[in-house]
Amino acid sequence: MTGMSVSRLAFALAIVGLTQTACQTGQRLPTPPAHLESLTKTTLKLQEIPAPAVPVDVAIYEFPDLTGQAKPNENFAEYSRAVTQGGANILVDVLKSAGNGHWFRVVERAGLKNLVQERTLIENTQRAYSPKSGNLPPVRFAGLILEGGIVGYDSNERTGGAGARYLGIGGDLTYRSDLVTIALRAVSVQNGEVLVSTTTSKQIYSYMTRAGAYKFAVPEELLEVELGISYNDPGHLAVREAMELAVYSLIVEGIGNGLWKLEDPSQEQVLLNEFSRTYVKKENAGS
Q1: DSSP reduced 3-state for 118
Q2: Was domain 41-278 assigned CATH 3.30.420.40?
Q3: pLDDT for 195-247, tens place per residue?
């Protein structure tokens, strides 16, 4: 076997080895362990909001994806949704984290059927085997219902890139920005009035960078090498961050409208001023 043939064989074996390594999955790879949900840029602001004078009882029946959007794909039709279908579950978690858990008492409504069935089972068992045992306390009801949903998903809201190649060697960078929009409102159970309503948006960035070489290593033998990496912002974290800002906005606007009070009233105006300075767009901005 000639030296050139040996080199070709070694190169082919190296490619096969890299392919097999890349195809290994699961616990064979040195992946990091499972972790709690990552913090967003709004998580700490929502957690550190001052405590209320009285916690607010709220119920959430659903928080649907109203966009109807599938995952963007330029090559073929996608049937997977562009945004999470578990909006209600994320919203419950966000509400329980507001003010380190002091702001909202969230009652179970999405799984109300299971809750009622379990309570019925307990009551029937107690009636049959412990006639003298006390009854279960009543199910807690809420004064507010939080309604809304994921109302918008704009793909390719912004795109761009750059690249260069010289003598067969070069690279390029491309990026894309999508936009997810959340609507949230608080509805009074007593009269059905919408007390507070807010809408928030969050961008989702994706980028891909590639580098490659296209050269004749020796006469009539072409060598082509490509490297690349891509990153996509997790869509569910973008939805969560938009929800956190929506809940934060709901709390602050409710304070401004006199719907609820802070435990320390002296902090109310400070909170209102900070929210207005940070998030409220002035009419003459940019003029």
Answers
A1: helix
A2: no
A3: 999 999 999 888 888 888 877 777 777 778 888 888 888 888 999 999 999 99
